[in-house]
Amino acid sequence: MKASCALAVVLGLCRGPTAVVSFLPPPATALAGAKSSAPVAAGPLIAASSVAAGGRGSRLAAAREDCKSCMEAELLEEERKAAAKGGGAEGAATRRAALEEYNRREKARNTKIAFGSFLSAVGLFFFQHAAIAPAQANPVVLLRAMETSSAPLATALTNGKPTVVDFYADWCENCKAMAPSMREIEEQFKNQINFVVVDGSAEKNYDLVDAFRVDGIPHLAMVNGNGEVETAIIGAVPKDVVVDDIKALLAGRPLPFKGFDMFEGEDHNIKGQIEIDG
After folding, report:
1. Using CA atoms, how far apart are residues 80 and 153, in angstroms rounded to an integer?
2. How big is the CA angle at 186 (ends 142 and 248), to the nearest 5 degrees?
3. 3-state helix, strand, coil in the chain (%, to 5)
4. Is residue 105 domain-shared with residue 91, that is, in the same domain?
5. What does the pLDDT profile of the chain (278 residues) look like in tens digits?
6. Co-location of 205 and 146 in the same domain
7. Hey, which residues does 166 pair with through a beta bridge?
8. Whether residue 144 is found in the same domain as residue 264
9. Containing structural domain, residue 91
10. Backbone angles phi, psi at 257, to 5 degrees
11. Is 5 among the catalytic positions?
């Protein structure tokens, strides 16, 4: 048996190439003036690299094939010598049976490896898409979907629940950065508050922009259950600030984070500014 073959057998190197999966932390962007970072669209969570490409895996695969080739060559040589001498056929037959058993097991092992690799690839595919897709969703598409699913503001202001009115524009970078966290907040409080998303740059919404005194975006108007605008949070804001203010609205407590009073010296009840059916 050749040295390389012996080394492969001794070291147990008859293994196929494997893939290394590294889990990389998603990048995060801190928002100015925030006490914590708001979630933003994350990059890929997973990177897969093959050890086989010009590395250890390729050498192991070559050693496995070399091992098999030298076994076959030695057996053929032994059979040739046995035939020439007219004897020793029994030993050669035993070796031949051993080699055939080796080949059978090798084929079965390769089949298992192939099937296992297929299952791993399928699992990795679904893990990547499940983990990455939400993070990489287009924030403008997300904002528009939230706007489409929003209840009409006139309806929201008459059901007795607090309301968060989120004014955005598709060119607003802070709006896009905050979109994933706003979606999470909406999902968290969906049965307790009204979450109304409004495209402030759309002409059809200019009356709402005027009614809420929107001078900059993102603009989050915090409205209590009576329809009174308690504050307006303008600009990039961390998720926990919004959550804390919503909890205060639900509890009827003073808001822990006060932004701008857009109605200073005026009636804060927005119902009088908006046409309410019925």
Report:
1. 92
2. 145
3. 50, 15, 35
4. yes
5. 434 343 333 333 333 333 322 222 333 323 233 333 333 332 222 223 333 334 433 333 454 455 556 666 666 777 677 666 665 556 666 666 766 776 776 666 666 555 555 554 555 455 444 443 444 579 999 999 999 999 999 899 999 999 999 999 999 999 999 999 999 999 999 999 999 999 999 999 999 999 999 999 999 999 999 999 999 999 999 999 999 999 999 999 999 999 999 999 999 999 888 865 44
6. yes
7. 197, 220
8. yes
9. 3-17+52-136
10. -120, 115
11. no
Nearest Cα neighbor of 95 from 107, 79, 108, 81 is 79
Q: Look up tokens 């308690």; give the residue.
A: 230
Catalytic annotation on 14? no
Among the listed residues 82, 67, 76, the one whose alpha carbon sits nearest the alpha carbon of residue 11: 67
19-23/46-50 β-pairing:
antiparallel
Residues in the chain: 278
Residue 37 backbone zone (phi > 0: left; psi -120 to 50: alpha; other: beta): beta
11 within some domain: yes
Beta strands in 8-79 (DSSP E): 19-23, 46-50
